[in-house]
Write a structure and sequence with these properties.
- This protein is an alpha/beta fold and 235 residues long.
- The protein has one domain: NAD(P)-binding Rossmann-like Domain (Rossmann fold).
- Helix content is 40%, strand content 21%.
- A 7-stranded parallel beta sheet has the order 3-2-1-4-5-6-9, with helices on both faces.
- Helix 1 packs parallel to helix 2, helix 1 packs across helix 7 and helix 4 packs parallel to helix 5.
- It is globular.
- The model has no long low-confidence stretch (mean pLDDT 94).
Length: 235
């Protein structure tokens, strides 16, 4: 399959790319800002499975307008079509709204919501019947879940991504392109550690990546337009 993973230089994204390489001879595009970490990822995937192909694309998804970049051309040079797109890249700044800088506010909006929306818009013409878009949201953006101070904008952007998923599933129903959203609970990643120093998450990045990998490959057989909580805690 032809697969795109954003936020692939570390955490869940890095583990996801390695899981796809392990599970088959897929062609994987890995998008992230850190070129050196992407090269490390490519070497790791080649060691796991030389038949799988990983193409690193260093790119900052916080760019104001993805349509004015060459990202689509870079992807099209490597993949003739797209079977799976996983919008995994995320940004979390733990701060009460009154203390949050405007720059951090808009960066969270761009990375967590605007970039996935623009990326989907750019790449939809490369998708076909049976393609699967998986948007990675958070339990913070899941209606009725526990909420925490300092995460108002982060949670709101993740909630927006969830609603976008529902709407696009309806828009693309006739085209046979599935959209689903996974609302993740706490996962042991660098992003979580920076936002909540000392907190011990119950799930590792590798464990969560294993679930997301399997869901991306098979979940569209059973789900479309769904927002699915992926957490061991309640509510």
């Amino acid at each position: 399959m032809n697969i795109i993973v954003t936020g692939a230089s570390k955490g869940i994204g890095f583990e996801l790319a390695t899981k796809f390489a392990l599970h088959g001879n897929h062609h994987i595009i890995a998008i992230a800002r850190d070129e050196s970490k992407l090269e490390m990822l490519r070497n790791t995937c080649e060691e796991i499975n030389p038949q799988a192909k990983l193409y690193p694309i260093p790119f900052d998804l916080a760019s104001d307008n993805l349509a004015n970049t060459n990202l689509k051309e870079l992807i099209a040079k490597r993949l003739p079509h797209i079977d799976i797109l996983i919008n995994n890249a995320g940004l979390l700044v733990n701060s009460h709204l009154l203390n949050l800088s405007d720059d951090d506010l808009w960066r969270m909006i761009r990375v967590n919501f605007a970039a996935p929306a623009q990326l989907i818009k750019l790449l939809l013409p490369m998708m076909r019947q049976g393609s699967h878009v998986v948007n990675i949201s958070s339990m913070g953006g899941f209606q009725g879940s526990a909420k925490f101070p300092g995460l108002s904008i982060y949670s709101a952007t993740k909630a927006a991504l969830a609603i976008l998923t529902e709407c696009l599933a309806e828009e693309q129903k006739e085209a046979g392109i599935a959209f689903n959203c996974l609302a993740l609970g706490a996962v042991a990643t660098e992003m979580l550690a920076e936002a909540f120093p000392g907190y011990k998450a119950p799930t590792s990045a590798a464990e969560m990546a294993d679930f997301i990998c399997n869901f991306a490959l098979t979940g569209n057989r059973y789900f479309n337009g769904k927002i699915l909580p992926v957490t061991i805690s309640t509510p």
